[in-house]
Amino acid sequence: MTTSKFTLFRLTHHLIPAQVMTGGFIVAVFAMASLAVGDSDSPTSDQRLLNDVKQLASDESEGRGVGTEGLKKAAEFIAESFRESGLDVTTAGGDAFQEFNINDGARLGENNSIEITTPSGKVLDLKQGTDFEVCSFGGTGTVTGDIVFAGYGIVAEDLEYNDFENIDIKDKTVIIVRRNPFQSNPHGPFAVGHGISRHAALTTKLSQAFSRGASAVLFVSDPFSAQSEREQLEEKLAEAKKEVDELTDETSQDAKNAKAHLRQLEKLLSELDDDPLMEFGYGGTRSGESLPAFHISKKVCSEILKDSIGKSLADLEKQIDETGKPASQLLPDCEIAAEASLEIIRVPVRNVVGVLEGEGPNSDETIVIGAHFDHLGRGGEGSLMPNSKEIHNGADDNASGTAGLLELARRLGKREQPLPRRIVFIAFNGEERGLLGAYEYVANPLFPLEKTVAMFNMDMIGRLVDDKLTVFGSGTSSVWETIIDAAAEKQALQLVKKPEGFGPSDHAAFYGKQIPVLHLFTGIHDDYHRPSDDWDKLNIDGMSRVISLLEDLVVATAQLEERPDYVEIAGSAALTRTGSRPYFGSIPDFGQETKGYAISGVAPGSPADEGGLKGGDVIVEMAGKKIGGLDDFDLALRELEAGDQVDVVVLRGTERVPLKVTLATPKN
């Protein structure tokens, strides 16, 4: 009978403690152990990987988007593969599925209205769809009271521009102009092209108003953009007319082309909408507490402004551009009565769980192996081709990791002798929405977290180039370094080690619960989050080598006499770094639906940690600003600097706890 890896371990491990199992010894054990389960890099294994990726990344799977039948079918496919591999698929309440609900946008309610009374006594009863539309990224509620014009709703201290500096907006409805001031100046302080800057985001402006206590926001489009677009079209139309007038042979192909071009321009100009309202759903939805937000027409806005202060919206835009100063002001004797009614759509999704029980004195301890199987469906939020409606098949992200999970389940499932510890395979859902499946599991674990000794994660393992594999979490246990190096040497892989346990995938949820983690990743590429991420671009042999490396890591970890120790590593690894915010060190809990910014943990040694914040806290105030969700926290943080000591108020259970946090320099 072939000697199993478990038998080899029993024969040798009592002679050499886990702490000194290093270098050549582990390589030798891995080399002998691989003979026990056959050649894991065989063409059969590669073909299985390819078939699984093709299945998961097919058009029939609809990009595995939330709410699609394709995502449901993918879950069933994974569950059946687990069952065929010999895994127990009954531990999640009798089947393989851990069910939970996630946010999938919003729908309009029945009662949405705006009525404005101007100083002259005129009552404007606005018509939805013509005069206003509800913003899906706002909140629901009824609003009455005063109205304030707050310019562009921008706070840019570095540019010495602040629309809120000399105006009180608390408990008032705020009119905010979209985009930025000074758009006519290509060298202006906000000039980054197409009127867009980091200050122009709708959710940023909403957060600026929310944090200052506003009761509602009325967004209005800036006059410059539409005027500029119309002028450009009119200029091109004049050129086209001149070209047609100068034709000498009206029957030539050039003449036909010129006339066709003229007709197209005339059509574009005739159909140009100078004041389109944002469709409901534009800008997505927002978690946490928010305030009602509407988009009103420029015509309505100018009517309100003229009746109140004698100036139109275009007049105020011009004033701001010419003076370089905000024109924010209370609109005297203007009152609003408005209602926004929208419902957040909650849809059911499922993690898929399969279990291999262990055998021996450590069999009550658990090792989790995970990979998320959801993707972006037909694009939308998260897509790097935001206007595309094509299926985003997500072959690398993350059909590759899911196929690796299925293959590893097959390999470990056919072992004659169980491993000394329980192995739990989890295909996570909702990762693209913020690690929701992983957070659901750690909040409602099927096996005790205090007995969970390690978590291994695969996310995008399909594009191995130059044998380089990135391993996140390499410093989260003192035993990892030796085990990882030995496995990498066997597979001839060059490792890029990132010691941090907090990072850009599902493993972060487990590290937040003080569980050692390792996350395998072959790198970002041009097809990331685009429809072009297809199966034919994957390196199947590279995938197989990554899976073989992980197999060795799992087996070696399962066979350790003592569980891996947990090591605190400050900071959070990231694929890319955005913004120039000072370092705070909180870990978002995207699985929470709460009024405030919920955190699942803090990075060890971070300012948040030093300031006394804890996992489970909900930040409701920072630096004197109200925090209703992550957007508000992010905005407040961007307005602060490293070295600032800020007051932070958290909800800890039902108690409001005041804390002070000294911000650090940004992490690289």
TrEMBL record:
Keyword line: Aminopeptidase, Coiled coil, Hydrolase, Protease
PANTHER family from the UniProt entry: METALLOPEPTIDASE M28 FAMILY MEMBER, PEPTIDASE M28 DOMAIN-CONTAINING PROTEIN
Name this protein carries in UniProt: Aminopeptidase YwaD
Segments forming a coiled coil: 226-275
CDD domains referenced in this protein's UniProt entry, alphabetically: cpPDZ_Deg_HtrA-like
GO biological process, one term: proteolysis
GO molecular function: aminopeptidase activity; metalloexopeptidase activity
Any Pfam family hit: Peptidase_M28
Keyword Hydrolase assigned: yes
Domain PDZ, chain residue ranges per copy: 572-654
Entry EC no(s): 3.4.11.6
Keyword Hydrolase applies: yes
Organism, scientific name: Thalassoglobus neptunius
Gene3D superfamilies: 2.30.42.10, 3.50.30.30, Zn peptidases (3.40.630.10)
